[in-house]
Each structure stands twice: as structure tokens, then as C-alpha cells.
Amino acid sequence: MRTNKRMKTEALISTWAELPDEIMMEVLLRLPVKSTLRFRAVCRAWAATLSSDEFRALHMARAEAGAASAQPRLLVVAPTSAACEATAVYSCSPPEPGASLLLTLGDLRGDFVDGIAAPCRGLVLLYDAVAPAYYVVNAATRAVTRLPPGQDVVNSSAGLGYDAQTNKHKVMRLLRMGKDITCEVYTLGGVHGDRWMLAAGRVPSSLSTTAQCAIYAAESGNLPPVFANGSLLWLIYGRFSPQNSAVAAITFSVTEETFGWVKAPPCGTLLGVQLVELDGCLCMVRDLRHGSPDCNSAVEIWKLQDYTSGIWSLDTRVDLSHAGVSLLTPKVIRVLGATGDGRSVKKIVMATSNHTVHAYDTMSKNVETILSVADDTEMSYPSDRTAIRICLFKETFAPVHKTQEEISFSSPLAKATREILLRLPPRSIVQFKRVCSQWRRLIEDKGFIHSYFAHKSLENRAKIMIVGKGTGRRKFFRFAPLENWRSDAADEDAWLDSKVVCSKPCHGLNLLITAELDYLYNPCTGYCRTNAYPGSLPCPPWETPTDGGILQDHAFAIGNKNVGLGFNPFNQEHVSVIILYQYKDFKTREYRLTCSVWHCRAGFFQEGLVPWLPVNNMPPAYVDGMLFWMSDPMLGPISEYAILCFDIATEKFDVASCPPEINTANWSIHSTWNLFVAELRGKLCVVLADLKRDELVIWELENGEWDEIYTVRLEASPNYSLRSNVVVPLAVDPMDGSILLSTGRKMGFYDPVNETVGELYDVDEILRTYKMTGAYSQGAPCQEQAMPLVPMLYEGSIVSYPRMRKDKILH
């Protein structure tokens, strides 16, 4: 029996069949793209018609004709959340309130998307400065393609254009390689496949310096090139121009792939200028608020009358004095384009760095605010970013032409392979890279790496490895499952010969800290990167007090440094923050320290940071883009505990208070308790170690409020006594609520019901068994005896960083 839905569909087809083809086509061309895409499912004939090149061309022609008479429709690119983990693309149709989410790009970091140019026949080019990678997006059809990587350079600028001769879109990159300027072209759906090709025409030697200036101007002003009259044009600021140059822009013919230049207008190209295409003509916008002697509250639009002669004329002058602070105070104003209301009344649409959009009526001379991202939408747009990621939106069916790699990744076989690989251990994943090139690309794909880490994070029980000495040849350490620690202890060649402190895992990587070097490791795959910082000492060159409530030398302290591993959520990079003490005097409370940040991806140091407080010798805690240390009340002017906070993204220090229930003002050097920080269940915790009661009291910070969550009583576990050990809580088992404790020498789960510790690892058992061999190193004389094997928490991941020859510049 036929369903009602099928009967209605057949009736619709029958009705449409009675209409002339011209009328049916005219109706379909007037439909929104989203509806037209759904109508492809009506029948095969409709699918063929609505997918044909002829229909696309007719729809494009209608979109071009209707653009001037339509109300402004805007495309807004914004992060999906405050953490900028992905990028969302929205559509706004003022004066209607709100914004419609069109699509989300999970691999594109929202806070590092450059300013976007006007769409080229419905397609938008987005650039992710973190990857780095280029994306071509058709927001109307929700189609996206990520372009293959091009040449790896520091300075470049790219734009999207259209070749009318071949009916293809092209992405062109202008590159600075040392003193040379070159360019490469990627053709969407081109005959050369998924490859960047050198442009047919080289940059003329006479324009080499000008091209360099164009790249610098694009990067400094966050101004992508503009597509107009079949060419991409890069603006040249006056301060970047070659001396005595009258060049306003360098041009690249998308069809001929040759370079040229455009003469500057009489007004010059000082700061505050931009290029824009209006009504099919190239225009230059002058923001006269930037130091112009003529006027400080106006925007001028100059139109290029003739490319050959380079004649410009003043077309429009927008008086901002009546627009209020919304247009007078923003740092940047950009003209997005022009629209009308069907009666030849042109409105010029402008966006600001305050994330507002305004329309200027050329007839009435009025300026109205048509969109405020902060007030009219719920987007998480970063208020401190000046890059304007708003453009006029035009619906078309222009294809993005996915790469062969994307097509192969979306096949049923590739999806099944992906699901299988997600369930394999990390070391097997690395080995499977050798199966074929397609598997290697799949495994090294950033999206797969993120999915694999997320999949393994579902197994949120603590995973523990034993760290021993490696065999050399960049195998500095050896990692083995915890259950094999007794058999591994029998191999004396694997015993560590110096003290090692292991960080907790941070986004798939661990930091192994020694007196001489720090090692960034993925213990699952063997990936490693080393860091040596001058000034680190195995033995502190000062006298340490014997009281103060905390041992000065323990399994979690090493030499004169305190190192924390964190993760920058904005640029997706691990960082190591190194605090080195040069001097401590516990009698005078004086100290001297340095603080540096090691950027793990690029491998460079950033020095000169100044912590607001001295920190104690306990390891920091990492939580949600922040590193936290407990201060040292025995140093500095303040003799009570406080929490030192470091925001990794902004690279700024701050100070937070401890739980108010802890009267830190009562602490003295004779106190029998101390404080340190820890991370448990993804939250910041403060741990009070009470030596007199032999118990740990743990507070957790949630929504700005401190709450006492655990009391760990160790009276029944003498091996974990606080009078002779520093005991650190590492994790909470989500199944039974038991707490993983470590002294460095011993590790076990504390049962909060029975108030006992079930031991997992005991280094003293190794020493008792093998102490007669004489193979065990005592380490430096000032340090606690080095342990032959060290337990370490880890996360299942395949995270790594490629070897880089230079630093990437992120704007």
C-alpha cells in the first residue's frame, strides 16, 4: 500500500509536469538554496535539473541581478564558545533579530580566523593560522573543502577569485621566501588535481619590492585581497610603499595569472584605507578619523574610473558626526559592500572592530545600526579582536570541489576503518601508518587525532605507566604498564640513574623533568621533544629550613626549578612554564627568580615574565587553560598562603584566595600544616596536609565557590604518613570514588569507606630485593635518593608536533 507521503509526492510531480518548463524553472530559481537542495530528493529528473551547470548558471545570474535590490544579508564567522574550540558560520537578516547557524567547522580555531573578504560568487575563503590551512566554504549549501597544504612560509597572503574563461574558482597565495616573492595557485576542481601550482606569470622584478609591501600590509592590517574586474588586488599602505611610489595596489589576473599594478588616487594610501568592490567597480575607502587634516569624522569612497589611465574620482563621502560613538570610536571601520531597496536607493554597509554593522543611505545621508553581534545575537565573539569576520551573504550553488582525500575519507570503507582505528591502542595506530598512504593521511588528520583523544578520554579511569631508563638514540626513557613493574624491576639496566619528576598528562602529553633537561613525551607512541634551559641546578644553592610544615626535598621537587605543563586552548599548543630560583634567604624572606615559557610546537622560549608571588616547591595544577601554583609563605612580604594563577592564552599572572575556611593568616613557620594545589576531576583543588592529624583535607573550586569534598585519613596507613612523606592526590576513580595517592615512592588507591590504602606500586620492595646488586645510583648528594622506576599517569593519545624549521606567526 502506498503511503500518504508517497502519494503527495506523486501528486506534486504530476502538477508540476503540467506546467511549462520555463515557468517551473522560474519558480525554482526564486526558491532559497536550502529548499532547492531538498527538492533534489523529489525525483531523479529534478535531481538532475537542480544539479546541472545550467541551473547553477541561471541561479548565479539571478543572484547577481538581485544583489543590488536586496536588504543586507550578513554572514558572520565566530567561535563556537569562549574557548574558541571551533568555528561557526551564521546568517543574519536585519532587521530580523537573532542569527541562524548555518554550519560548524570543528577543525577551524575560531579565534585565529583572519578577516574575511567579500564572497566570490557565493564562496568564502577562510584561513586558520594555527594549522595553518585554508578552507573554501559555500555557506548556502553548507559545503566545505579544506585545501591541501601549500609551501611552508612565514609571510603570505591569499585570496579567492573566479576565472570566467574556465568557469573555475582559484585561490592565489602571494609568498615571501627570503628576499624572493613567488605565488602559487590552487584551482578548485582543476585539471591539475589537488595540487598548488606555480602561477603562469612570475612577479616582475620591478614589482618585487611592491609585492613584499603588499604582503606586509595584508598581514599588519588583517586585510585580505579584493576580487574585482577579474583580478585579485592587494592594497599597499603608504608607510609600506616603496619610496616615491605611486602604486595603490598590486593586481593578479585570475585568468591570465599575470601581475600588474594600479595607480594611487590623488588622496594617497595612508593608514585607514581599504579596497572594496562596489557596483562592479574597484573602490578605495579612506577612514579620515586616522590623522587626516581634512576631517576627523568622515569616510571617503574613491572609485577607479579606468584601470589603464589610473583615474580616480571621489564617489561618496559618509559623514560620521551624526552616527554617534558607534562609528566614531571603533579602531577599524570596513566597508562591506552596497545594497538597495529596489528603487535605486543605494545603502553602503559598514562593519566595525566593535562587531557592529551599519548602513549609510546615500540619499537621506542617514546612518543606522543594523546589527550588533553582542546585543542582537548569542554568538561568543571575542571582544578584544579587531579582525572583522563579517561580510555580505549571497546564496549560490557554486561548488567547492572537495579534494580526493576528503572524498576518500567520506567513503563507507574509510568511515568503517576510522571506527576500527579509534578502538586500537596508540602504538598500533602508529604502526598502521605504514599500511598505505591513505591510512597514513587518515591517521595524521587533525580531526582524527582529536576524535581519537576524545574517544580514549571516555575511559576516564586513571591509567598508569612505569618510567625507566631508555636505551639511548633518542629513546631517553622506557615506559611499561604498571602491572609489569615487578618484572621490569628485575632488569637493572632499565633503572633510572638520576631523579625524574613526571607531570600529570595534559592533552595527551607528559613532561618528564630532570635537573638537566625537560622531556615532552607521548608515552604511548614514543614521541619526544627535549628542552634545556640554562640556570637549572640539581642542588639548590641555599640552606633550607627543617620546619615549615613541608619537606623541602621530596619526590615532586627537583633542584631550583618548578615546571608546569599546560595547554593553550586558543592556538592548540602545549606550553611549559619554567620558574627558576637563583636565590632564597628564608631568614630575610628575600628571593630572586626568573620565569619563562617554552612554546612546545615552535620550540622557542619567551622570557621576562614576572610572577606576582614566590611559589612553593610543589608541582602546579593545570585546569582549563590555566596553571596554578601555591605561594611560599616563607618568602616575600606576605606570610600567608595564596594561589598564583597564570592564564596561558593571555600570558598574564593573577592571584586568587584560598578557601575561606582555611585561616591562612594563622600559618607560621612552626605550623604543622601546609597547603598545595592539585587537579582532581578536571577542577582546581586546594589540599591541606595536616601533619598532626595525619590527614589530607581537599577543597574543590566550582563556579567560583570552594567546597570541601574529601578528607583522607592516613593514620591506618603508616607508609603514607604525612610526618615522613609528601602525599599527593592524583585522581579520583569515577566508579567507586577511591582516591589515587602517591608519595613518589609508593602509589595506591585510598578507600574512603575503610580509610585504608590498597598499594599498587612500592619502590622500597625493589630496593629490598635488589639492594645487594650495587647497581642502584644514589643520584646527587643534595637530593633525595633517585628511584629506579617512577610511576606516571598518562592518557591514551597519538598527539605529537611536527618538526618545525621556524616559528609560525599568529595574528
UniProtKB/TrEMBL annotation:
Which parts of the sequence belong to the F-box domain? 13-58
Q: Which SMART domains match?
A: FBOX
**InterPro entries xref list:** F-box-assoc_dom_typ3 (IPR013187), F-box-assoc_interact_dom (IPR017451), F-box-like_dom_sf (IPR036047), F-box_dom (IPR001810), SCF_F-box_component (IPR050796)
What Pfam families does the record point to? F-box, FBA_3
Where does the chain cross the membrane? none
- The name of this protein is F-box domain-containing protein
The lineage is: Eukaryota, Viridiplantae, Streptophyta, Embryophyta, Tracheophyta
